[in-house]
Structures are given as structure tokens and as C-alpha cells.
Amino acid sequence: MGLGVVGGGVADALLQNPSPVSERVGRAVNLRRVLVRDTSRSRDVEVPPGLLTTDAGEILDDPEIDIVVEVMGGSDPAADYFRRALESGKHLVTANKEVMAKNGVDLLELAQANGVTLRFEASVGGGIPIVGCLMNELAANDIYHIRSIINGTTNFILTRMALQKAPFAEALAEAKGLGYAESDPTNDVEGIDAAYKLTVLATLAYGRRFRPEHVYRQGISALEPQDFRYAEEFGFAIKSLAIADIQDGEVQLRVYPALVPAENMLGNVNGVYNAVEVHGSLTGRVLFHGMGAGRGPTTSAVLGDLVATARLMSRETSLAGPRHFKEQAAVRSIGSVFTRYYIRLIVADQAGVLAQIARALGDEGISIASVLQKDTDLESQSAEIVIMTHPAQESFVQRALLSIGNLEPVRRIGNMLRIEE
Amino acid sequence: MGLGVVGGGVADALLQNPSPVSERVGRAVNLRRVLVRDTSRSRDVEVPPGLLTTDAGEILDDPEIDIVVEVMGGSDPAADYFRRALESGKHLVTANKEVMAKNGVDLLELAQANGVTLRFEASVGGGIPIVGCLMNELAANDIYHIRSIINGTTNFILTRMALQKAPFAEALAEAKGLGYAESDPTNDVEGIDAAYKLTVLATLAYGRRFRPEHVYRQGISALEPQDFRYAEEFGFAIKSLAIADIQDGEVQLRVYPALVPAENMLGNVNGVYNAVEVHGSLTGRVLFHGMGAGRGPTTSAVLGDLVATARLMSRETSLAGPRHFKEQAAVRSIGSVFTRYYIRLIVADQAGVLAQIARALGDEGISIASVLQKDTDLESQSAEIVIMTHPAQESFVQRALLSIGNLEPVRRIGNMLRIEE
Ligand SMILES: NC(=O)c1ccc[n+]([C@@H]2O[C@H](COP(=O)([O-])OP(=O)(O)OC[C@H]3O[C@@H](n4cnc5c(N)ncnc54)[C@H](OP(=O)(O)O)[C@@H]3O)[C@@H](O)[C@H]2O)c1
Ligand SMILES: NC(=O)c1ccc[n+]([C@@H]2O[C@H](COP(=O)([O-])OP(=O)(O)OC[C@H]3O[C@@H](n4cnc5c(N)ncnc54)[C@H](OP(=O)(O)O)[C@@H]3O)[C@@H](O)[C@H]2O)c1
User: Fold this and answer.
1) Predicted confidence band at B149 (pLDDT cuts at 50, 70, 90)?
2) For the whole model, what pTM was predicted?
3) Which residues 131-190 of A have a C-beta within 8 angstroms of B?
4) Which of A8, A57, A221, A382 lies in the 20 to 30 Å Cα band around B337?
């Protein structure tokens, strides 16, 4: 299977050897060409020079290329490349929210008319698989609403403003310094990027055409530190939400900073994380939370689409999982677990017990992080000791517990629980 | 397309008119037979008597049935029905975690050998689309770990024990009373159900065969109220987690009650909710949160699989979304939004200002829920007033803000933000 890539962003993942894509598809998927603006520019990703081109035709007109991956961004010339690719019978995988928001339905129909697929998981939510889920797993639901945090830059700035009560300009500067905001941050802070993504989600959720202009937008630049102080006093966080809902068959689309109850899951989405809450007629509320952008999550979404496309071409439809399940897995015993432990003991209320217990733990190399001695029961002359250990291997803890259970003043081991942090 | 259903659970959803499945597939999907134990039993779902049967052959041997949906439960005779259905070239959709945990890989291979699909989204996580996501959207990732809360009964009991410091027996009785626990709760409280589900997830995540016996299990019946008290003191919640992780190519599978930091998302999954956290090599951590069981979520998952299967049969693969996007959506303006509002005003620090503002709001029928007067600035003689309104329609709020902006003592409208609860 031949592959052409428009834009250099995910080329490294496609050049890996062994190729994770070929492995998952069960058939070789070969990268044939990568379109860039400047072949001589130095790149962090080592692309063999023979693969680079600045001529789109070398991808769009190459009959050996079955699938085009677009990670170039912008609507021009991307939209035009899309049409040419689909019309010449090439499957398309894209990360382009702008083109999908502006021309998504037309392109999907064009793909269908040409008997090819168009996938765009990476266009919304990065590592959060919301596009595929709305199209497939949640397809039987009527969607009552989508409430989402789908711009990581904005969410990073708001999180900074909330934590440090910093002015907008300062939080924005910090975001730029860390590479989370572009030099011209308009698309992010004015909600344009989120409006593109919301348009894509609403189109899938409601099966109708929407355009970015349908989205009411309010940016975050007018927020001031005291808004965060007051919101907090009332028990709220401030988050830029992208919302789609439907009432009497009419849809409302909006992107704005809103107060969200602090104990609400959306109120706890911080930093560059994204989250999408879908309220479906059958599922009730389902929340997806993960990294919304960045190379890894975008690559995950693009390669996931690529694997799905290639599997479909190979008719690997029934498994749709790893092609061959290996015979027998190597499974580790519980004794190999390495974590911290909570141990509750019921002991005789007498001096020196704790020392004996600590020695039994120490003999197995387990050190104690903290101890509580509690609830002395006068009648039975017993007390409870609660121990939190430092990380240790479970097999040693099990052995220590055996010794502890045999200590004379230990009446009973109340509970041993692992700590998962 | 003909459909046979084994077990009565989702028949109602398949009998709806207009049929949401047919609508989403773009082609009639007709329910031909429903297999039950007792055709004469009264059911809350009205199934036309002609459709009911107690003879499995009427489904498995009917050449007009292309897809079999199984929601009967248990491994016997379900596993046998699966084999017969797949061998006679019927696609299969199932909610059966036990069969998938015990024979999943064999059945998937049997499906592939017979050129049909086997889908099982409903077997894990109910309304949470974790099965499909592991197979498709996350397919390009190496999975470092899965950490999940996948038994709603157990999580309900633990939530009760945590909130009320109730003994296990009492919380279990409450769960039974509400229909969340069966009369014999062993499968849930001893982690057997979770072990089945974890086996399914691990098989997909690692592409290897696992069996339920590979899962280390510890139930929740030994937990005592003081464990919750102590955990809370240390800043932890207690949750029954199902965990799969991999180290040096070896997998560890376990189900046990563990201490989870209270501020962690998994620590805040309460009641019958489920959650699955997947740590992928590309995506980082992705969290899914939703209802793990119950009729709605199970139906959502089963119908989602059914739509996917039927679309594939109809080669509706390129859109994989609503078949035809309707021309133009009806879109409501922002003025139609109905919610509560946060309004911050900068006003002259003089008597009677609040009364004027309240009147302007009252004139538009907007009532005030609470007011803060803050931060008097001595130099500029100005003060800040923060108002939280009761729910109101945005168009009225916008109009009130125009009037308020024109009030003489109002220097500036600091911000107006919506409250999303
Ligand atoms: N990075 C992320 O976090 C992320 C997340 C989600 C979605 N996306 C989407 O991915 C796309 C690209 O993002 P990015 O961050 O990878 O952008 P980028 O760093 O600017 O990379 C753009 C790539 O496309 C090439 N390119 C741009 N315009 C071109 C043209 N007219 N002709 C030929 N090649 C052209 C560039 O070539 P040169 O190398 O020669 O400059 C470069 O390789 C966008 O759609 C974006 O929305 C990115
Ligand atoms: N309900 C949920 O929340 C949920 C969630 C996830 C997964 N699931 C899965 O869905 C399956 C069923 O759950 P459920 O709660 O719907 O169970 P249920 O209420 O016990 O229903 C079982 C259905 O199957 C029929 N049936 C059972 N044994 C049969 C046999 N030997 N021959 C013919 N028909 C038989 C029953 O017929 P009668 O009507 O005549 O009794 C009934 O219609 C299980 O795999 C379960 O794990 C359920």
C-alpha cells in the first residue's frame, strides 16, 4: 500500500522501522512522498531526501499512492488538494479542522461518490477519540448536548489565571514562552479554533450542515484576575467551553468563557488538557478527557485513521484488532507489583508493639512513610495501627505480613490495600 | 437486512418506529426473531408474539438472518450459539463479557475465517466506547497501562461506604434494594465480573491471549468503615480498580480495592459510574467516564455495533456518519440561551447604585440570586459589584446590560459570563 504525506509533521512516525502501522495492518504500508514547502530546510525529523518534494502533483497524481495523509494546516491550498486526492480515488486522512469545518460535508460526499474514505480524527481533540465515537460507537444516540474544552492554549491560559490570579497578558506570555501559544494567538484566544472544532462535532452529532459562522464566539482576553477570585468564592471555575445543544429541533452553537461548578469534571480539566462531554439519549453523559494537541496525540489520531483505512482496504474488517493474537501472554504474578501500601492492624494496646511491627517490615526492606495509632477499645484492650509504606515490592510485603500476623500482640490484620497514584 | 436477537433485553429499541438503526444505516434492518426462555412470560417490552421463539435454530438456521445480536448472558449455551452463528456466516454483536473473556480470541478468529464480523462494545463499560477505541482510534499506541473502574455495583457500594461510613453489609443491602446488585452478588463483589472485562481489555490492548484466571482478584467484602476514614485522612478514596500494565514485555492483571488520591479523576468516579484510563505511548493518558451498565448504555453499545455492522454490509464505509447530511441546520441565536449569569460591574462608590441596577434587571424579569460588593478603590472612588442571577434568557440579559451600562453611576461593565451547571 502506498502512502503520500502532505506536511512534514508525522513523517517520523511513518518512517519507523519496524513500522507500527504496517504491523497493525498486517501488510506493508510504504511512505512514498512527503510534501513540504522547503526541501532544504533542516528538520528535527530525518526524512530521506528522495522522499521530500515541493510538487503536490507528485503525490496527488501518483497512481501508486492509495492513501494521502494531510497535516499541513490552513484551508488553502489544502481544500484543493483534498478534492484532487478524492477525485483520483485516493483515501484521505487529515488533521485539518479548518477545511473540515468549512467544507466537511461536501468533501465527505465527494469521498463517498468516489468510493473512498475520508477520516479526520486528529481534527478535534487530539488524543481524545471523539470524532470516531460520534460516528460509530455513539451512533445510535440522539445527542442532547456536547459540552467541551477543545482548545488547549485557552485552557492553559485560564488555568494560569486561576492559579496565579495573573492578568491575561501575563498568562498569554507564559503560554507563548512554553510554545503553547503561537506568536499571533488570535485563532486560539478568540475562539476561532474552537469554533472550527465545534462545527465538526455538531455536524457529526446532528447529521446536518453547519458552518463556523453559526457559532457564537466570545474570547477570553477580557477576563480579569478578579473574575477568577469571585468565581472561586462562589464555588466555580472559569473555562472556555464549546457547546452544542438542541431544542425543538434547533441547534445552538457557542464558544465562550463560562463559570463551571468547581466540583464538576469539566471544572477540573486543567492546563493543555481537553475534555468533551457528550449527553446521549441512551448513554447518558459520557466524558472524554485527554491531551488535545501536540505531536504525540495528533500522531496517534492520524495513525489510528491510517490503520483503519488500510485495514478496510485489506478487508481486515472482522478482527479490526491486532491481526494475529499471539498464543499465550507472559503474565506476571501479583508479587511483582511495586507500589505503596496501606496496612491496618488490630493489636493489643501495650507498649512496644509498633517497634515489633516496624522491625518485621524492616526485615523485608520495607520502610514506613507514616503511622496512625487510633481507636483504642478500652473493653478489649485493643488498638488500631494504620501504616502507609514507601514503595515496595508486593512479594516482600506479603512476607512481612505473614511475620506480622504471627507476632504475639497482633490480634488481626484488618486490611492491606495498595495505593495507586 | 435481517436480524435475530438472542435474549429479550434490547428488543424494544429494535422495535421502534421509525427505527433509529435503519435510519442510521440508510437501509431497512428488520427484526425477524427474538429468542427467550419463556414466550408466555409477561414483559415490560411489548414484543409481537410472532417474533418470540424458544428455539435457537429459528435464528441460527434462518438464512434470512444476516446479523445475530446476543444479550442473553452466561457462557452456556451462549458460546455454542456464537460458534453456530459465525460458522453459518452470520455477523455477531454481543454484550457477553464472560464468553468474550473465555473464548474471545478463538471466536474472533472463527469470525475472520468465515468472513464475518464479531463486535462486543457492550461487553465492557456500557456507554463508554472503550472496546472500539482500543481496536481503532488508539490502535497506533503501545498501551503502557489501563486503570479502570468497570464494575458499577462495586463502585456504588464503595461510594456508599465512603459517604456514610456504612459497613459493607449495609451498603450491599442498599445496592440490592435499588436493583444495582443481584441477589447473589458474588460475581460483582469478588471482582469476577471485573476480571472478565479486564481480560477483554487486555486482549485488545496487548494483542495477546489472556484468560480470566490470569487476573489476580481481591474483593471488597473485607473492607471496613474505618478503612474509609483513614484513607480520607490521608487524602485518598478507596476504589476497586481493574488494572493491566506491562513491563519488559510481561503483563500484570489485577482487580483489587486500592487507595487513589482524592483529587485524582479516578478517585472522583462515584456511584454506578465507570471510568477507564488508558495510558498510550502517543496519546498520553486518556480518560473515559460514563455509565457502565443499565439498559440505556447497553442498548447504545449494542445498537452502535449493529449500525457499524450493517453499514459495513452496505459498504457505507466512507461516510460512516449519518448517511445524508441535511441541507441547512436550523440554528438558534445566542439570545435563546437560558442559564444563570455572572455580572461584574465597576460603579461609583455611592449610595443607591445597587437599587438602580436591581431595577434595570427587574425591568427585564431577571432576578438576582446573590450580590457581592467588593474592592472599593479609595483613589478612584469606585467599587465592584458582582451579581449572580437566577436563570434567565440571554436576550433579556443583554437588554438589561444595555440599560445598566447607561446608568450614571455605572463606570463600566467588567464582565458578563454565563454559568454552565
Ligand atoms: N501540532 C499539533 O499539536 C496539532 C494538533 C492537532 C492538529 N494539528 C493540525 O496539523 C496541521 C499541521 O500542524 P503543525 O503544527 O504540524 O504545523 P507546522 O509545524 O506548521 O507544519 C506544517 C507542515 O506542512 C508543510 N507545509 C505548509 N504549507 C505548505 C504548502 N503550502 N505546501 C507544501 N507544504 C506545506 C510544512 O513544510 P516545511 O516543513 O517545509 O515548512 C510543514 O512540514 C494543522 O492542520 C493543525 O491544525 C496540529
Ligand atoms: N443489563 C445490563 O445493565 C447489562 C450491561 C452490560 C452487559 N449486559 C449483558 O447483557 C446480557 C443480559 O443481561 P440482562 O440484564 O438483559 O439479563 P436478563 O434480564 O436476565 O435477560 C436475559 C434474556 O435472555 C433470555 N435468556 C436467558 N437464558 C436463555 C436461554 N438459555 N435460552 C433462551 N433465552 C434465554 C431471557 O429470556 P426470558 O425473557 O424468557 O427470561 C431474557 O430475555 C449479559 O451478557 C449481561 O452481562 C447487561
Assistant:
1) very high
2) 0.90
3) 132-142, 147
4) A221
